[in-house]
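User: Sequence recovery, please. Input:
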């Protein structure tokens, strides 16, 4: 029940407010002290009851009452007075007051009066309200079924007003209405609130003659109810949630037919309510299922790490994009993207860091794309991008460059500053492929080309690449036969002591005598062998040839200090130690005659496993060299833990030694460090005498390069060794 308090004494006001605060069924909508203030508040907040003090300053309570009634304000008014009761009582009632109390400080009478105006509460109020809430109907828009029934009720019974009224906790709300504008009212003044607690029909033939309603604001004011008849709307669980009611402004009584009509129509309302609820439940079920389907789809089409579409989703979208491009005659770009050196980062910093890096890269790619573009993760560090609706090929190249620029921004991973490049291959529909499969394959091929050209760049697909790919495939099957058929051959390149040019070793470098293409250098087939797993049989073959050659030289009395054999990262697996030992045993060669060359990245990958393998090799007496030192990421601290014997300084540092001061500084630092660790240093790619001199000054032990000799066949090497040894003798 909504109450407004008009009182100018702070003491009494506080007292009243305190009191009502502790009574949950009453709400004080506001309070005022003066006459005008009071009227403004009453008009604005439309209370059910006004508690009115007679003596106000400024103004008077009696004036408030008179002005309220003059404007037809229907709220009930209780006058509170200090004055001796009789003097004012009658004047107040004459002016339209509903009750009169002396301010005694005891509110018992007052509360009894207020309570008498409150409609009764059903016994099952709580489950009733829950049932109403379950219908999910309050405050929903008008629905024709209910409006039609309501119109029918008004027409059949002949009343100006008819309602489907739902009784909520504090209000009644009309789902359908005929003859009145408002769509809700307070529960306190509601006739329907009475109707729901009475079984069957609730009929008030003349409100003026009924003490419960005579002073009801809806009787006194708008809509001026004289006659009310409400039939309860009872749900199957027994909850009366409201009524179908008819209202008139003249007194009347329903006849038997009208009663029956109201009853049948009310039952119809309930049936419709149930139907409506069932439909809503079904709809909700459909929505729930659809959401579940979407979730499942999402799982099946998303990559869980980056939340990007996965390969399946990419193929689907690409298929659609190609259709659209064909229809709208536009170009379509497909990018294949692969991070440079991701494996290295993953292996050195761990998988958590790798995952974080992939997420960061996924965000960066997305950030430079348009809404209509698609970026998908294909797995590992491979991504693909679809660029629809292009007009020129250059647009795709431009976007690829933006991606490269975005990805190569520095970032910090686990507190380490890092810069990651990427290689992108690009194929454009329709010129470089017109199916999903060819576009992706061509973009993939171009990506390899970009990688081979040094990475961090974009390559557009060309027909040659396809030829190369075909060639690669042919080479692969040929290489398989070559390994078994003896087409591989070892060349040897000497390593000499810088101080006196004495021979300190020979590096075995593999060549392929290809029947069609001639002599092939290792970079033409070693990467292929690594990719296809052929590196293992190839490596065994090389090892066998090298050890056999050492044995042959020994047999000829040629004492070669040691022969270095290159080992690929892919060869670092369990069988390696045994394979090496078996080859040595077969030819009766001691392990100190062989040095294995491994690149930095091979050595630093996957810490413990590699470490164990290296240690096992060292324990058997084999020397281990770090090849191409300086181009990888390994730290000196890491090398310190590895059981290595030789450091080979990469050619790139040696080549500029005479001209580049910075290279001098690096080489000097490397040599100093190697010396402190007791490692032999070998400079690779020594081509000029000046480099030879510079390296000697810096304290490098040995050199290898064209200055001393190119790699030569075993026949030439044997001749050379013979000459050397006869010189020496
Ligand atoms: P690497 O182990 O660093 O071998 C040195 C490479 O530098 C050789 O190239 C050699 O010919 C070249 N080189 C030597 N001196 C000079 C010079 O003064 N100037 C220049 N510009 N180059 C020089 P090659 O024989 O083409 O071998 C290339 C790479 O192939 C090798 O690099 C090695 O990593 C790999 N490789 C060679 N043989 C094998 C093998 O049997 N197994 C494996 N897994 N890899 C091999
Ligand atoms: Mg080497
Ligand atoms: Mg090298």
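Assistant: Recovered sequence (729 residues):
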């Amino acid at each position: 029940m909504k109450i407004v308090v008009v009182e100018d004494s702070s003491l009494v006001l506080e007292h009243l407010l305190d009191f009502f605060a502790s009574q949950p069924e009453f709400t004080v909508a506001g309070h005022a002290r003066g006459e005008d203030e009071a009227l403004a508040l009453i008009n604005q907040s439309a209370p059910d009851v006004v508690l009115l003090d007679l003596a106000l300053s400024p103004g008077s309570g009696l004036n408030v009452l008179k002005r309220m009634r003059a404007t037809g304000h229907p709220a009930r008014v209780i006058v509170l007075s200090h004055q001796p009761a009789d003097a004012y009582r009658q004047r107040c009632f004459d002016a339209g007051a509903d009750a009169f109390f002396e301010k005694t400080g005891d509110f018992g009478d007052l509360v009894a009066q207020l309570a008498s105006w409150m409609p009764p509460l059903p016994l099952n109020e709580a489950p009733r309200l829950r049932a109403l809430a379950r219908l999910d109907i309050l405050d929903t828009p008008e629905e024709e079924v209910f409006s039609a029934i309501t119109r029918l009720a008004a027409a059949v019974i002949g009343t100006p007003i008819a309602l489907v009224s739902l009784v909520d906790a504090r209000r009644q709300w009309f789902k359908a209405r005929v003859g009145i504008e408002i769509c809700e009212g307070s529960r306190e003044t509601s006739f329907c609130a009475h109707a729901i607690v009475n079984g069957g029909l609730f009929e008030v033939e003349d409100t003026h003659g009924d003490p419960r309603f005579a002073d009801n604001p809806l009787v006194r004011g708008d809509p001026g109810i004289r006659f009310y008849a409400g039939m309860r709307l009872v749900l199957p669980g027994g909850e009366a949630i409201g009524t179908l009611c008819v209202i008139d402004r003249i007194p009347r009584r329903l006849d038997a037919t009208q009663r029956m009509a109201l009853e049948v129509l009310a039952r119809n309302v309930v049936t419709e309510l149930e139907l409506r609820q069932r439909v809503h439940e079904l709809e909700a079920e459909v929505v729930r299922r659809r959401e579940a389907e979407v979730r499942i789809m999402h799982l099946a089409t998303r990559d869980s790490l980056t939340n990007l579409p996965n390969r399946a989703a990419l193929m689907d979208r690409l298929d659609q994009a190609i259709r659209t491009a064909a229809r709208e005659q536009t170009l379509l770009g497909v990018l294949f993207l692969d991070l440079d050196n991701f494996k290295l980062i993953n292996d050195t910093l761990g998988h958590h860091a790798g995952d974080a890096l992939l997420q960061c890269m996924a965000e960066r790619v997305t950030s430079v794309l348009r809404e209509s573009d698609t970026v998908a993760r294909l797995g590992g560090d491979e991504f693909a991008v679809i660029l629809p609706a292009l007009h020129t090929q250059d647009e795709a190249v431009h976007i690829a460059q933006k991606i490269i620029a975005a990805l190569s921004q520095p970032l910090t991973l686990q507190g380490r500053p890092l810069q990651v490049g990427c290689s992108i291959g690009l194929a454009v529909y329709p010129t470089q492929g017109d199916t999903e499969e060819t576009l992706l394959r061509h973009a993939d091929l171009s990506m390899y080309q970009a990688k081979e050209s040094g990475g961090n760049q974009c390559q557009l697909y060309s027909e040659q690449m396809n030829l190369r790919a075909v060639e690669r495939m042919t080479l692969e099957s040929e290489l398989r036969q070559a390994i078994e058929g003896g087409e591989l051959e070892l060349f040897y390149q000497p390593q000499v002591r810088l101080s006196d040019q004495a021979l300190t070793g020979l590096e075995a470098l593999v060549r392929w005598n290809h029947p069609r293409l001639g002599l092939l250098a290792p970079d033409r087939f070693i990467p292929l062998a690594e990719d296809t797993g052929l590196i293992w049989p190839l490596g065994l073959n090389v090892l066998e040839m090298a050890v056999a050659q050492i044995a042959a030289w020994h047999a000829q009395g040629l004492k070669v200090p040691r022969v270095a054999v290159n080992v690929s990262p892919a060869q670092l697996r369990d069988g390696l130690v045994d394979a090496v030992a078996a080859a040595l045993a077969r030819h009766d060669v001691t392990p100190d005659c062989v040095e294995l060359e491994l690149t930095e990245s091979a050595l630093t990958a996957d810490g413990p496993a590699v470490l164990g393998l290296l240690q096992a090799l060292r324990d058997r007496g084999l020397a281990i060299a770090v090849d191409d030192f300086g181009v990888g990421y390994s730290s000196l601290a890491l090398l310190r833990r590895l059981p290595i014997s030789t450091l080979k300084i990469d050619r790139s540092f040696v080549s500029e030694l005479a001209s580049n001061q910075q290279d001098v500084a690096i080489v000097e630092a490397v040599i100093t460090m190697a010396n402190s660790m007791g490692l032999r240093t070998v400079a690779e790619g020594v081509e000029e005498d000046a480099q030879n001199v510079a390296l000697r000054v810096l304290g490098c032990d040995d050199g290898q390069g064209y200055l001393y000799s190119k790699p030569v066949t075993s026949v030439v090497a044997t001749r050379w060794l013979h000459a050397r040894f006869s010189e020496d003798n």
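Residues 301-464 form a domain with the Alpha-Beta Plaits fold (CATH 3.30.70.270).
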